[in-house]
Design brief:
- By secondary structure, the chain is of the alpha+beta class.
- The chain has a single domain, classed as tt1808, chain A, CATH 3.90.1570.
- Helices cover 37% and strands 24% of the residues.
- It has five helices and eight strands; from the N terminus they run H-E-H-H-E-E-E-H-E-E-E-E-H.
- Strands 1, 2, 3, 4, 5, 6, 7 and 8 form an eight-stranded mixed β-sheet that branches.
- Strand 6 and strand 7 form a beta hairpin.
- It is globular and about 45 Å long.
C-alpha cells in the first residue's frame, strides 16, 4: 500500500486517529499579499488549467506556482519538493511519492523535517484527496520522529488548484478544516501556508 492508496477511513483505522472537523481552523491567519508576478501568472494560468481539465495541468499551472511563491518569499524557513519519495515506514504503507512537500528547512537539496504535505484532489473533488493527504501527514510525522527532530503539528493541504482545504495533525488527532478557499483568495491561502511554516 502507498499513500495514494489510502482512503481517509483507512488512515483513521490503520493508525488509530481521532478525526474531527473544524468550521474555520485557520480563520486567524492574516492574508499575505501575493507578488505581482503571481497575480499576473494566475490570471492567465487558471483559465488555461481549467480548459485543459487535467490534474497535471492544475498541478503545474496553479499549485506549483503558489507553493513556489511561498518558497521564494521565505527561503530561510522552508524548502519545496515536488513528486518527492517519502518512504517513512514501508511496512505500514507509509511509502511512495507525495505530490508536494514543504519542509521546515532552508536546505533545498535534502528532504529534512517535512512539515506540510500537499495532495492534489482527484477528479476535482476535494474529498477524494483527504486519504492520501492524511497518510502523507502520518508519514511526515513518523519521518520526523525517527530522526529526532521537529516535534509538533504536521499540516496538510488538499487542493484541486482552484480550491484549497487544510488539515492539522497532532499526535493521533487529525483536524479537518471545513472551510475551503478558492484560488481567487490566494492571499488567504498564502497567509495560511506562511503561518504553517512559522513565517
Amino acid at each position: 500500500m502507498a499513500y495514494s492508496d489510502f482512503t481517509l477511513d483507512q488512515v483513521r483505522t490503520t493508525f488509530g486517529l481521532r478525526v474531527s472537523e473544524h468550521s474555520d481552523l485557520f480563520a486567524s491567519a492574516a492574508e499575505l499579499t501575493p507578488s505581482p508576478w503571481l497575480v499576473t501568472y494566475l490570471n492567465g494560468s487558471v483559465p488555461l488549467a481549467r480548459a485543459m481539465n487535467t490534474g497535471k495541468a492544475r498541478s503545474e499551472l496553479i499549485i506549483a506556482p503558489v507553493l513556489t511563491e511561498l518558497r521564494l518569499r521565505f527561503p530561510e524557513l522552508c524548502s519545496l519538493f515536488s513528486g518527492a519519495e517519502l518512504n517513512a515506514d514501508p511496512e505500514r504503507g507509509l511509502r511512495g511519492y507525495c505530490d508536494f512537500i514543504i519542509a521546515k528547512s532552508a536546505v533545498q537539496h535534502l528532504l529534512e523535517a517535512p512539515l506540510l504535505l500537499v495532495a492534489g484532489a482527484k477528479n476535482s473533488d476535494l474529498a477524494t484527496g483527504y486519504g492520501q493527504c492524511a497518510a502523507g501527514m502520518m508519514g511526515a510525522q513518523y519521518f520526523n520522529e525517527t530522526r529526532g527532530g521537529l516535534p509538533g503539528a504536521i499540516f496538510g493541504a488538499v487542493t484541486t488548484g482552484e480550491n484549497w482545504a487544510f488539515a492539522k495533525l497532532e499526535a493521533t488527532s487529525l483536524v479537518l478544516d471545513m472551510q475551503a478557499y478558492p484560488i481567487n483568495r490566494v492571499g488567504k491561502i498564502l497567509g495560511i501556508l506562511r503561518d504553517m511554516i512559522g513565517g
